[in-house]
Amino acid sequence: MHSAPEIKGWCPGALSPMQSDDGLLMRPKVVGSRLTLAQAREIAAIAGECGNGLLDLSQRAQLQMRGLGEATREEAQARLKTIGLLAPDAATESVLNVIASPLTGGAFDANEIAARLANAIVEDRTLQQLPGKFLFLVDDGGAPGLAEVAADIRLEALGGDIAVVIDGARDLAFVATPDVAIDAALDLARAFIRLREGRAFELRRMRALVDALGVQPPLGEAALSAVPYHSACRTASMADLLGARQAGEGFFAGIAAPFGRWLASDFSRVVEAAAQEDGSELRLTPWRAVLALAPSNNAATRIARAAASLGLIVDAEDARLAITACPGAPECPQAKGATRDRLERLAPIARQLAPQGIGLHVSGCAKGCAKPSPAPATLIVNGEGFDLVHDGRASDAPSLSGLSLADVERILAERARKEASCPAA
Question: Residues 215, 110: one domain?
Fold first, then answer.
């Protein structure tokens, strides 16, 4: 059995950094998906000058700077404040969690709705009682869509209106105009706070509350009525995101770093490549990809080529996309060993296990932060090797334990060969 990992229940911020074995983790507070090139350039500079030069792009579309020390903490905070990426205080920072469609072209401006939500959260001290993982999501109905991104309260385009949906009951929605929908989403968050009183640790997310109480208590507490609902939000694939792409009348270069880990120097070079092409913004995504907006397809192509020359991923066929891994040791104090050593040799096998998406998840502990959902193969570092879970999560009982990397390579290659010779009907 795996030993139970510690559940933090919150994400690091700039005002509330998290201690890790490689120093402090600090996240600039990005609301929605927009990042100007000036902001991106300064984030890279702070990461290199105040931290250890590493950046992670999270599944919540947030950039995380690593390896900061107490001596550089205040400088980093001051510089983030200068570029508008520092929350008013730590309590507000914790609950300013709003993700938005990364591109325009939908029914409304998702980033504008996200900003309005964030402003309301800043002004309402009651909402600072929300858990640190509680997430709002705004989907404008365009591509790439956020249908598969989990969030506690969703605001989704529905014609000219917005459907407000809570996790755990996505077949129901309160439908209203944008102004009313924003108020309804905030009322649902307040209802969540009241209903979880006395059960805060148990009911950390909206889905847990709905599972425990049903859907009517939060709706009733917020004085909302819901109707049957089928979401029209789209899913996204890396084929829609990477390389030089066109979205509506605009263009962008989609770029990913292996396992979401960027060198600050590479991130800076991508920013400069976009600036040289008269780009204006980066868009952060929950798929660990950055979209660099460009004025033309030729400009997007040149940005993508510049990224590829750095070893970054601009092709959806890149086998490295088939593996996800947490930072592991020595960076995470809960990890029982390294998770990213020599993973590129497993990438082709991982792609065989999953022609699309993630075929292999490597976790430093049973918590499985990098991929809470099942994967065809999951490796958990156990201190002396790897435990292997087939078609499951890091928290599941392993099929095999104490494996070396060579063992893993042999076992997964054999599985991939069998599945290729006997495809499912």
Answer: yes
Question: What's the pLDDT at 337?
Answer: 85
Three-class SS state of 231: coil
Tell me which residue range forms the domain holding 98: 93-228
Same domain, 99 and 202: yes
Residue 363 belongs to a domain: yes
Q: Are residues 324 and 223 in the same domain?
A: no
pLDDT for position 335: 86
pLDDT value, residue 423:
66
Phi-psi region of 136 (alpha: psi -120 to 50; beta: other; left: phi over 0): beta
Q: Does residue 256 fall inside a structural domain?
A: no
The domain total for the chain is 2
Please report, rounded to a whole number, the percentage of residues in the chain having pLDDT higher than 90: 84
Phi, psi of 181 (to 5 degrees): -65, -40
Distances (CA, A) of 271 to 88, 252, 284: 27, 13, 13
Q: How many CA atoms within 13 Å lie on the side-chain side of 224?
A: 29
Strands 63-68 and 323-325: unpaired
* pLDDT < 70 positions in the chain: 1-10, 423-425
What pLDDT score does 73 carry?
96
Please enumerate in sequence order all residues whose Cβ is within 8 A of that of 244, keeping only pairs 6 or more positions apart, or say none. 251, 252, 253, 294, 297, 300, 301, 303, 304
The C-alpha atoms of residue 373 and residue 369 are separated, in whole angstroms, by 10
- CATH code, domain carrying 367: 3.30.413.10
Residue 140 DSSP SS3: coil
In terms of domains, do 104 and 224 share one?
yes
Partnered with residue 389 across adjacent β-strands are 378
pTM of the model as a whole: 0.91
